[in-house]
Amino acid sequence: MPSLSVDVGGLTLHNPVMLAAGILGTTGASLRRAAQAGAGGVVTKSIGVEPREGHPGPNIVTVDCGLLNAMGLPNPGYKEFQEEIDFARVDGVPVVASIFGSSAAEFARIARGLKADAFELNLSCPHAEKYGSELGRYPDLVESVTGAVKASADVPVWVKLTPNTADIVELGRAAQSGGADAVVAINTLKAMAIDIETGYPILGNRFGGLSGQAVKPVAVRCVYELSSNLDIPVIGVGGISSWEVAAEMIMAGAKAVQVGTALYRGYDVFKEITDGLSSYLERKSLTMDELCGMAVRRL
Amino acid sequence: MKPLNAVIQEVRSEAPAIRTLCFDLDLDPAPGQYAMLWVRGVDEIPMSFSGENSITVNAVGDATNALFKLGAGSSVGLRGPLGNGFVLRGKKILLIGGGVGVAPLAFLGEQAKNAGISVTSLIGFRSSEDMIFRYRFQNLGDVILTTDDGSSGIHGRVAAGLEELDLFEFSQIYLCGPELMMWDIISRARDQADKIQACINRYFKCAIGICGSCCLDPDGTRVCVEGPVIMADRLLNSEFGRYRRGPTGGKGQCRG
């Protein structure tokens, strides 16, 4: 069997298929379950300085071609969350802590106080006031936040980018200048849905983020552009629901991929994707390195 | 699924703070399954079915109060039926319920009786004032009633009614109510836990098994899709009865 092991952004993963932030990452037990189901790495729910309850419901709407969510960054605060990370870390699968803050100082404070195998900076959530993409759409803020966390953390720092911008490469370059070890693309596309019986926006927060199949072509394009222009690795996320999509994302230049929305089918999705990738590499007589960025080299 | 528009056809008062709302939809839920009800402009909350097209709400928080106040002709958004409900097993069953948690059990009992199954009920309430569905249960078979204040039936908690019963007689036991009441029953009937189906509650946000807010320690069971009905032997060594997570995901106390 071909090896699926990858070195990406300072971590070694036994396979490139990770659990994405915000999906089944609220508890140590749910993270560990993803690791035991075959994820090559897991990313926690985004964690902030203080406890937050998140937005009122509905928090989620299934649309024709994906999922719309506005959870609102619910989390118990980084001090209380440490025990969840510790519980999840025991199986040797890297646990990446997704963190958010309203300033470089807040990000740095969490990075100093929380122990994880790496940090993923949420500079891209499209539906929480003062957080996420409200910072992450400005290249200078992306660079300063990344720099502040790099100066405070002794583990790799990844930056998750928003697609809700005219030029995602500019944001990727800012992360790279700030010292990021990798970028993760993409977070959800800002979106909404309306109840035509009553005219109410369905999500409690009105606006949310679109994920799943609908965003996959956008994600593939973003990953391709980023990997073509950056020196640091790119981790692809957005509509990874099968080994075929994972292969496409890796060809676009992703060193690893993250699965989110597809988890609605259950934890078996990790094994489905890794088994499929493995057979595919074997059939094509390719290594992961050869597959990675193949589309970028076909000019 | 986008929320369906569920129009309230009838409202029945069950107790001072408890009402049953009947909807115009043909949902065909299994007892123990739930719906996410969207009270527009307020919140979306999980509610167990108390009948084929009804839920029974106890006004305790913002969303349940808003739901409680809706009249016939009003509508809510509805996602459901969701989750795994109760499964009927054997010919002689026992229902054990507390408070508004008796609602899905009355629904289950009626299906069981129609299937020719013998039904015994042990139901408890804080006081006779809070009592609901007494006649629904009496129509099913033997009923043992408890009240915390002694205003009706046996004076004491639901578990006090266990003394009247030989649990070994029953092919299956169905449990729903406040968490500490359920935990009290499960811990006393530990040796029977493999035949107790418990309909439990956790903090649901997505209700499709992806957000993780309802996951049980230590195995990460997603209650919204793998439950809410869970065999009690799987709860014995879990967080159930010890702590529960709230809206932040942080651990808090179980409610009585």
Please describe what this structure looks like.
The complex is a heterodimer of chains A (299) and B (256). Chain A is α/β, with parallel strands linked by helices and 299 residues long. Chain A has a single domain (6-52, 71-188, 213-297), classed as Alpha-Beta Barrel (TIM Barrel), CATH 3.20.20. Chain A contains 11 helices and 14 strands. Chain A has helices at residues 28-36, 78-88, 104-113, 133-136, 139-152, 168-177, 216-229, 243-251, 269-284, 288-291, 294-297, and strands spanning 6-8, 11-13, 17-19, 41-43, 60-63, 66-69, 95-99, 118-122, 157-160, 182-185, 189-191, 208-211, 234-237, 254-259. In chain A, the strands form 3 sheets. An 8-stranded parallel barrel of chain A has the order 3-4-7-8-9-10-13-14, surrounded by 7 helices. In chain A, strands 5-6-12-11 form a 4-stranded antiparallel sheet, with no helix packed on it. A two-stranded antiparallel ribbon of chain A has the order 1-2. The longest helix of chain A has 16 residues, at 269-284. Chain A starts with 5 loop residues before the first strand and ends with a helix. The mean pLDDT of chain A is 96. With 256 residues, chain B is α/β, with parallel strands linked by helices. Chain B has 2 domains: 4-82, Elongation Factor Tu (Ef-tu), domain 3, CATH 2.40.30; 92-252, Nucleotide-binding domain of ferredoxin-NADP reductase (FNR) module (Rossmann fold). Chain B has a 7-stranded mixed sheet, with helices on both faces. Chain B is globular, with a radius of gyration of 17 Å. Chains A and B meet through α1, β5 and α2 of A and β4 and β13 of B.
